[in-house]
Amino acid sequence: MKSFMLCADDYGMTKGVSKAILNLADRQQLSAVGCMTNFKHWPELAKEIAPLANKIDIGIHLNLTLGTALDNEAKPFSPASVMVRRSLFRQIDSAGIEREINAQCMAFEDHMQCRPDFIDGHQHVHALPVIRQALMKVMNHRYGACKPWLRDPSDNLSSILARKVAVSKALTVKGLAYGFGNLANAAGIKTNQGFSGFSAFDDAQDFGADFEQFLVGMAEKHLIMCHPGFVDDELRGLDPVVETRKKEYDFLFDGRFEDMCEQKKVILSRFG
Q1: Which of 78, 126, 225, 251 would give a disulfide with 197, using CB separation of 3.0 to 4.6 Å?
Q2: What would the DSSP string read from start to end of 113-132?
Q3: Could you tell me if 14 and 41 are in contact, meaning their C-beta atoms sit under 8 angstroms apart?
Q4: Which of 21, 24, 25 is nearest to 10 (CA)?
Q5: What local confidence, expressed as pLDDT, does residue 114 receive?
Q6: Helical residues (DSSP H) of 80-206, grouped into ranges
Q7: Is this prediction's pTM over 0.70?
Q8: Under DSSP, is residue 156 helix (H, G, I), strand (E, B) or coil?
Q9: How far apart are the first and last CA of the chain?
């Protein structure tokens, strides 16, 4: 029987998103939860998820593209497309990125009273050139030999093509993350092996059918990302991914997910 990790992104973004993730985590329908620590609800929401630390991996969903910086609240983040362009042309302030990563790590540690189990990135920005080097530098200084694991958002070409879901998005991220896993491993940082969960975020699409494809070509330490949530006005005003979040939640909560895992002979596991 194969195992895989299932990580819900965006905890802390809004109360609706966070409540949905809490429900799933409490039922152990998730392996991991990535927390956005730069939003106003984080101190309150950290208290709610902290008791689940013995059941799931809880980490930092590093955010550099949505809302404002923790290190400088007057500074709004640039969209992901701008960050990608700046990273590729080495036009990013590495020292500024290090300060923001440190600030988000500190916000996690202060309110959770522990180090994160892992670090990944909203819209996979953590794997971009310049940002990846800044992240690993911070991890080395903050965590020494007990480093959290990192999400490698790439996978092998044959598996991506075989899944037939959001292929262009998966290939784009694979290209942008080229060399990330090797760099992390050389720094003594563990990563997942195999990654899926890319979605077109199309409300007309059957998420259950997509999830079945996410299970294709799983590696030994395979990680699947998901984005469940309850929809409210706060979410609509903040993020373009809205209605599909409830569809993901319903699939994971109402028994279809468990039935699929049983049928496919796969089980959830934590990174360790």
Answers
A1: 225
A2: SS--SEEEEGGGGGGSTTHH
A3: yes
A4: 21
A5: 96
A6: 80-88, 94-112, 131-143, 157-163, 167-176, 180-186
A7: yes
A8: coil
A9: 17
pLDDT, residue 75, reads 81
DSSP secondary structure string for all residues of 194-215: -EE------TTS-HHHHHHHHT
Backbone φ, ψ for residue 84 (5° rounding): -60, -50
Token pair 């600030």 is found at: 103
Closest CA to 78 of 18, 41, 122: 122
Number of Cβ within a 10 Å radius of residue 224: 20
User: Structure tokens of 148?
Assistant: 């959290």
Phi, psi of 32 (to 5 degrees): -155, 155
Residue carrying the six token digits 């939003």 = 39
* Assigned token pair, 203: 């409300």
Length of the chain (residues): 272
Please, which pLDDT band fits residue 272 given cuts at 50, 70 and 90?
A: confident
Q: Quick one: 256 exposed, middle or buried, by C-beta within 10 A (0-12, 13-18, 19+)? A: middle
List, in order, residues 6 or more apart from 168 with CB less than 8 Å away.
none
Which two structure tokens, joined as six digits, stand for 188? 């003594």
Q: Show Cβ contacts of residue 27 under 8 Å, excluding neighbours closer than 6 positions.
A: 253
Fold of the domain built from segment(s) 2-268: TIM Barrel (3.20.20)
